[in-house]
Amino acid sequence: MAMHRRIYLLTAGMVFSMGAFAIAEAGSVWLDTLDVSLIQTGWGDSRANRSVDGNPLSIQGKEFERGVGTHADSLFMIQLDGEATELSALVGVDDEVSKDETKRGSVVFKVIGDKKELWSSEQMKGGQAAKECRVDIKGIKVLTLVVEQGDDNTYDHADWAMAKIDYAGKAPVALEIPRPKPYILTPKAGPRPRITGPKVFGVRPGNPFLFTVTATGERPMKFDVQGLPEGLTLDASSGQIRGTVRKAGEYKTTVIAENKLGKAQREFRISVGDKICLTPPMGWNSWNCWACAVDDDKVRASAKAMVDSGLINHGWTYINIDDCWMRKAGAQDPAIGEPVRDNDGYPISNARFPDMKKLTDYIHQLGLKAGVYISPGPTTCQGYIGSWKFERQDAQQFAEWGFDYLKYDWCGYSDVSGNEKMEDLQRPYILMRKMLDEVDRDIVYSLCQYGWGDVWTWGEAVGGNCWRTTGDITDSWSSMAGIGFAQADHAQYAKPGCWNDPDMLVVGKVGWGPKLHDSRLTPDEQYTHISLWCLLNSPLLIGCPIEQLDDFTYSLLTNDEVLDINQDPLGQQARRIYNESGKQVWVKRLEDGALAVGLFNTQSFSQAVTVGWKDIDVRGTQTVRDLWRQADEGRFESQYSVEVPAHGVKLIRVSK
Ligand code: GLA
User: How much is the pTM?
Assistant: First the structure.
């Protein structure tokens, strides 16, 4: 509802050209009356007259009747066509976060007029009084109200309270934020064979073995593996190796892929011992797309598409079901009035998953592996049954069903954990480790407890193969970058068999329910996401339906030189060696002595980022290879400098 007042405008131009008074409309418009659904919001949804969490707008104890509640990074574009005069508002961090001292956001409000900064609040923190913003916007065509993150990047609930625009002429209108067009860097895989995927695979003696040798190139392709240990056989047309190896040891094999255009070969080490998961797991997980709308059909569709789309040829392996496959907690599922476990305490899947064994069989015959999820508590996050007091049955059942991966998600364990001291945090994970050790199947053990108690310092000791280091990710820059760039201190804990897990990928179509949308990350933000997750040795779990991959997302997930950084057998996690003015440099040492270097720009404008050879401990002229383009950039004497787009990255390989 705009506050209109009719006024008579007299301008010199009008007097001379028209020789008369002209009548134009003028007034003020409250920002909250514009279409706030068009605001790009870092987390949650921007709201009219409410905070981003839906509370009355409030800054340092003062409530405001009107305004817009949003969350950094936030962009609100308004068309003025040169007809507005003044913007006024009271800005600050909303009290819904600043009441709690541990949750104080820090943000910067900015007013941009036709790409020029007209006003900045400077950094504001939670608990600080509202600042007055009064800006002359005469002549401005497009006004952009920006909220950027301050020093930290969480709890940035930001209010443009009592915000209004005075205008003379046409009323301001909210604009859709233009989405940058995706651009593809990954070259198409060539027709000749090229072997992909991990160079090492771990298995326990006597346990079922399944590994699919993968390669790009024209089909039909014929595979061969020289030096396979006893007990294993290869299917030459699919590349699937199956069987069991009884004798522990390191087996060096040579993998060969051949088609009518040529032949490729590469060393592949099979490590038979007590360590599995020697490279970060790569696959798919149902949560970021389907959440509780997951069912057997959707899991099969992603598995089938993993093969049909050719993603499998780049080393993608796991098909993981997240929450919501079980029955609802209680002695009986309240929806169907039937028991949630059988007479012996084994879990029963719900009607959306009619036959778990058939499902994993389907996944396995495709050459893929299957993952499952449960909580150590009485309930999962979504109120389905957890393993509490049935840990043995669950481990046995998962093995019998044929699962290869277990995500063990704390959630309902809070109800029974006690004080959440260190021993309480570790207890359920130690218990399930024991149960998994009793089954004759290799099951990757993924701890999920959001990083509590600095899990990276003890995840290995309790027998985890990976451990979530953070809360849940969502498809916004502040979430993805907030999580990814906060991983610098955990590098020393990552190694083969033990991986920090900053959560799953948010590329392609996501939605956490039946309705999906394209990831809200810009193309450059998605390049940052994949590059950073590869440098971090993170498990790579795609969170979109594989059968709905678009060309851009496909290109992001099939760059073998980028994926090789994630799968490098040395397993060293990248370290951050530079972090100033939104420029970050991360370096990861690779098995062959080369370095993978990520040059990141976290600012919302492009800027040059430089890495000097002495900062990364290399001497003399170096070859720099652009990993996304898979092309050499040339030889560089003492440093490499490149213009990096806003929120973007340049991922390079530096070698002698
Ligand atoms: C937690 C986890 C998520 C997902 C959900 C399922 O929030 O962190 O990754 O597994 O539970 O309910």
Answer: 0.85
CATH superfamily of 194-272: Immunoglobulins (2.60.40.10)
Pocket probe mutation, ligand 1, options 284, 285, 287, 328, max atoms within 8 Å of Cβ: 287
**Cα dihedral across residues 106, 112, 117, 120: positive or negative:** negative
- 244: confidence class by pLDDT, cuts 50, 70, 90: very high
Q: For 285-566, CATH number? A: 3.20.20.70
Residues 588-615 have pLDDT tens digits of 999 999 999 999 999 888 999 999 999 9
Residue whose CB lies within 8 A of the most ligand 1 atoms, among 405, 407, 411, 505, for a mutation test: 411
On whether the CB atoms of residues 573 and 537 are closer than 8 A, the answer is: yes
Look up the CATH architecture of domain 575-655: Sandwich (2.60)
The Cβ of residue 587 has, within 10 Å, a number of other Cβ atoms equal to 21
In the chain, ranges of CATH 2.60.40.10 domains? 194-272
What gap in Å lies between CA 102 and CA 87, rounded to an integer?
33
Cα–Cα distance between 442 and 399 in angstroms, integer?
8
Which residue's entry shows tokens 């919302």?
604
Over 574-600, what HEC string results?
A: CEEEEEECCEEEEEEECCCCCEEEEEE
Select 10-175's CATH number: 2.60.120.1060, 2.170.270.10, 2.60.40.1080, 2.30.30.100: 2.60.120.1060
User: Which residues have CB under 8 Å from 468's CB, separation 6+?
Assistant: 446, 447, 448, 449, 450, 451, 455, 501, 502, 503
The per-residue pLDDT for range 127-175, each reduced to its tens digit, is: 999 999 999 999 999 999 999 888 776 789 999 999 999 999 899 999 9
